Amino acid sequence: MNIPKTRATARQVRTVRGTRIGLAVAGAALIGYGLLGLPTQLGPEQTLGLLIWMAAGVLLHDGVLVPLATLSGAGLTRVGSRLRPASAAVLRGGLLTGTVVTGIAVLLLKAQSEARNTSVLEANYAANLLWFWAVLTAVATVIIVVLERRYRS
């Protein structure tokens, strides 16, 4: 596979670096604002519970989601996908997005089945999940077909 190598200009490098620094500063400011507001909004037990929940989220992301995404990407590559790199990225992104949304939907379906108050979780999560996968598949397919046709012409 011959991918043309292009070098970024000094201006592009500065622009990307400046954008990254700006986003990092904005993110740190928002995190700081949120953390400063916690003591006024939550009690000590709720704050501890929230911090434990956030730590579990980081562990789930780094310990489960990232390795699975890496393995699935490597698996798609190893199988010998004939897709161009951009199309393969769309495929991996679609699969990853679908997997994450399915994980959330499974949690909602479980909570819905055990809910004491049926008015809290009243959406039809199973049907919505099927519609989501249908739309995700259609959009990813259209993007991949357009990218592949553009490459071939």
From TrEMBL:
User: Quick check: keyword Transmembrane helix in the entry?
Assistant: yes
What are the alphabetically sorted keywords of the record? Membrane, Transmembrane, Transmembrane helix
Query: Which stretches are transmembrane?
Result: 21-38, 50-77, 89-109, 129-147
Which superkingdom? Bacteria
The identity of this protein, by name, is Uncharacterized protein
